[in-house]
Each structure stands twice: as structure tokens, then as C-alpha cells.
UniProtKB/TrEMBL annotation:
GO terms for molecular function: efflux transmembrane transporter activity; porin activity. The keyword Transport applies. The keyword Nucleus does not apply. Belongs to the outer membrane factor (OMF) (TC 1.B.17) family. It comes from the Bacteria. Keywords: Cell outer membrane, Coiled coil, Membrane, Signal, Transmembrane, Transmembrane beta strand, Transport. Residues 1-26 form the signal peptide. This is Transporter. Pfam families: OEP. PANTHER family: OUTER MEMBRANE PROTEIN TOLC (PTHR30026). It comes from Niastella vici.
Length: 448
């Protein structure tokens, strides 16, 4: 069959479009605000997912604890083939023999079969009942562990996210510096060609421009590494493209700063330790209940058959039933003080947890005060560096105008450029310090 040219062209177009679309489909692109980045991380982070799995595991553990309070029913089937029947010694005088002597007699049949079911129901067991009471506390403990993990992820994502935002601002400023240096190099070369500047002046500006380009390449490399680290922290495949849509303003850094009160219950770590304390209390109660007797109901129903031939499935042959119901009470009397040791150990664990709670309170107070000091200092430093950077840029621009008018030297403009770039670097350091201080403060008061 010969294909028409139009059909061939359509097939070729589909092949080409498929080849073009495949890379686009293989690589996904995301544009996230800081909040969206945090939400993505909380859904996809391996640490968060594992913490959530711990909650599911605890739910299954609770099911196992609950099962101990339900009736335990089991069935059994037993078939025995006596290759040699058991032998019993019977006093010989029963058969007319001499008193004091015994006669060996074999009882039973070659095949014995039994099937039936047994029941065991706990009526009272202190450990089981405490386990039932502690189920909600166990779930709370697992959920608080999830909350602590999420809090750590949030803080780290925010820090890296805004570090990258600062890096983007630094790149924009470096681009402006490079543009200024390129224009200065162009003007200096023109002055040199007309005999108003020396070759050394051209070389100095060339070195400055090269240093700026090197600095930009270094910052871009740091940004690339930061993006990889952020995607890893978020649980995002590294091959995906990520862009940041949030900007950073000084008003954002000052918003609601130092206005909130401190409550220990706002900290996830504090709630986590309180859940541990509750479980420690249940543990003590559980071990104390081991001094109390346990009571359970037992029952059994079985049917037994005895055969000389293996004909258990033959109808009409007799099966002999047996059944019983009973009450079992286990009374602990002496175990070498093992129960006392368990109770004492559980009490010590509770004391350790209480010590950790007090230690955490002190830690929270310390973190809050330290972060307050840091954020005040960071904001003051940022304000000063902002003014300093603006002043340095104004000095550079004025020096450049004088240089272009022939009233200033190359040394003056080189010094002004150095001072401006140093002021810019100090500003970005202060800006990042303010971001870290704000995140640490919000985390310290439990409002991140």
C-alpha cells in the first residue's frame, strides 16, 4: 500500500511535536511564595511523612491493645496414630495374681481424633485496662511528634527561601554595579585614547569589572546550590524547576515584631513533652496494677472419637463431646521485687520528663530573650546599613560626575566604588541577619 504525501507529512509532524513536547512534560516548573513552599514541604518531606506513618503505626498498636479486651477464641484439630498403644501397669491381684505385683495392660485404640474450640475472656487485668485508657494519649504523643517535625521543617524552609530572595536582590545590585563599571571602563578608555588618562587607570577599572563579574558568578553558584538544598528540604525532585515569587521588604521584617506575649503551650516541643509526661503517668499506673490479681473466664468444647481404623469421615460413627466453663484467678504473691523495680523505674522516667519540661521552659525563655535582642540589633544594623549604602552610592555618583568632568582622579572613583560595594555587602549581611532573627523569634514564641 502506497501512502499519500499528505499522510506522510502528518506523521512527520506528530513525530516532531512529540519530540518537542517530551522534554517539557518531563520537567515540571513551580513558582512558590514562601508559604506555598512551606505547604509543599509539609506534604512531601520524608521526615514529615515518616512522622505521619508513626501516627498510623500507633493506631494499629491501639487496635492490638483493644484486642486484648475482646474474647480470644481459637479452634484446634488433633489426630493421633498410636504406632504403639500406651501401656499401663495394673495391680495383678485384680486379675487373680499375687498381691504386690503388676500386670502390663494396653488401653485405647490405634486412632484418636479430637476437634473443638476454646474461649478466654479477660474480666479484669489492670495492665489491659490502663492500656485502653492510654490509647488517646499515645495518639496525642505521635501527633505532637508530627507537629515538632513540621515546625523544624517550616523554620528551615523559611530561612533558605529568604536567603535565596536576598541572593536575588544581590544579583540585581551586582548587575547594576557591572553596568556602571562597564560604562566607566568605556569612558576611561575614551579618555585614555585622547591622552587624558593613563593605561594604568584603564587596567584598574578592568580589574574592578572582572572582580564584579567574578563576585556575581560566585553568588549565582551559591544561589544554584541553595535552590538544590531548598528542593531537597521540601521533598521536591531536584530535576524540577523552582522559582521564588515572594519579594522582601523591610516592612515585612518589622511586621508584628516583639508585639506577642510568650506562652509555653504555644511551643510544639512543650506540648510534646507534656504528652510524654502523660504517658509516663500511665506507665506508673500500669505497673502498679500488676500487684492486683487478674481474672479471666475460660471455656472449651471438644468432640473426640476413637477408631481402630482411620474412618473419621465415615458417617454414623460416634463422637463423644466434652465441654467446660471456668473462672481463672491469678494472684501475684512474690516475684523477687521485679514489680517494685518496674514501678520505681517508671517513676524515675516521669521525673526525668518533668526535669526536661522545666529545662525546656528555661530554654524557651532564653530563646525568646536572645531572639528579641538579636532582632532589635539586626533591625538597627539594617537601618544603619541602608543609610550607609545609600550614602555610599550618592558619593560614588558624585565622584563619577567629577571624574567625567575632569575634576576628579581615578583613585577617587576607585575608592568610592570600593566603599559602595563594601556598604552593599554589609547591607545584605544585615538584611539576612534580620531575616534569621525574625524567624528565630517567631519560632521561639511558637507563632511561626
Amino acid at each position: 500500500m502506497k501512502m499519500k504525501p499528505a499522510s506522510i507529512n502528518r506523521i512527520a509532524l506528530v513525530v516532531v511535536l512529540t519530540g518537542l513536547l517530551r522534554p517539557a512534560l518531563a520537567q515540571q516548573t513551580y513558582s512558590f511564595t514562601a508559604q506555598q513552599a512551606v505547604e509543599y514541604a509539609l506534604k512531601n518531606s520524608v521526615n514529615v511523612q515518616n512522622a505521619l506513618k508513626d501516627v498510623e503505626i500507633q493506631l494499629q498498636t491501639n487496635r492490638e491493645i483493644t484486642a486484648a479486651a475482646y474474647p480470644q477464641v481459637s479452634g484446634s484439630i488433633n489426630v493421633t496414630d498410636y504406632l504403639k498403644l500406651p501401656t499401663q501397669l495394673i495391680p495383678a491381684e485384680f486379675f487373680g495374681g499375687q498381691p504386690g505385683t503388676f500386670q502390663a495392660v494396653r488401653f485405647g485404640t490405634k486412632y484418636n481424633g479430637t476437634y473443638g474450640a476454646t474461649l478466654n475472656q479477660v474480666l479484669f487485668d489492670g495492665q489491659v485496662f490502663v492500656g485502653l485508657q492510654a490509647r488517646a494519649a499515645s495518639i496525642e504523643y505521635a501527633e505532637k511528634n508530627v507537629a515538632v517535625t513540621k515546625e523544624q521543617i517550616k523554620a528551615n524552609v523559611y530561612k533558605i527561601y529568604y536567603q535565596l530572595v536576598v541572593g536575588k536582590k544581590q544579583i540585581a545590585l551586582l548587575d547594576a554595579n557591572i553596568a556602571r563599571a562597564e560604562k566607566l571602563l568605556h569612558d576611561t578608555k575614551a579618555l585614555y585614547e585622547n591622552g587624558f588618562q593613563e593605561k594604568l587607570d584603564v587596567d584598574k577599572v578592568t580589574v574592578t569589572l572582572s572582580n564584579l563579574r567574578t563576585q556575581k558568578a560566585k553568588v549565582e553558584n551559591q544561589l544554584s546550590t541553595g535552590y538544590v538544598g531548598l528542593k531537597y528540604l521540601m521533598g521536591m525532585p531536584v530535576k524540577y524547576q523552582l522559582s521564588l515569587s515572594d519579594t522582601l521588604s523591610e516592612s515585612f521584617l518589622r511586621d508584628n515584631v516583639l508585639a506577642d506575649s510568650v506562652r509555653f503551650d504555644d511551643r510544639q516541643e512543650y506540648q510534646y513533652l507534656k504528652a510524654v509526661e502523660k504517658l509516663n503517668t500511665y506507665n506508673i499506673k500500669r505497673y502498679k496494677y500488676t500487684y492486683i490479681p487478674t481474672v479471666s473466664l475460660t471455656g472449651s468444647y471438644n468432640r473426640m472419637a476413637q477408631r481402630q481404623k482411620f474412618d473419621f469421615f465415615k458417617g454414623g460413627e460416634p463422637w463423644y463431646p466434652t465441654a467446660y466453663i471456668g473462672l481463672q484467678i491469678n494472684v501475684p504473691i512474690f516475684d523477687g521485687f521485679a514489680k517494685d523495680a518496674r514501678v520505681r523505674s517508671a517513676k524515675l522516667e516521669l521525673q526525668k520528663t518533668q526535669n526536661n519540661i522545666e529545662g525546656l521552659k528555661n530554654q524557651i525563655n532564653n530563646e525568646v530573650e536572645q531572639s528579641r535582642i538579636n532582632i532589635r540589633t539586626a533591625l538597627i544594623t539594617m537601618d544603619e546599613q541602608t543609610k550607609n549604602m545609600q550614602l555610599a552610592e550618592a558619593v560614588y555618583n558624585q565622584t563619577k560626575i567629577k571624574y567625567e568632568q575632569g575634576l576628579g582622579s581615578n583613585l577617587e572613583i576607585t575608592n568610592a566604588d570600593t566603599d559602595m560595594r563594601e556598604a552593599q555587602t554589609n547591607y545584605f549581611n544585615a538584611l539576612y541577619d534580620a531575616i534569621i532573627a525574625r524567624i528565630d523569634y517567631l519560632k521561639a514564641i511558637g507563632k511561626l
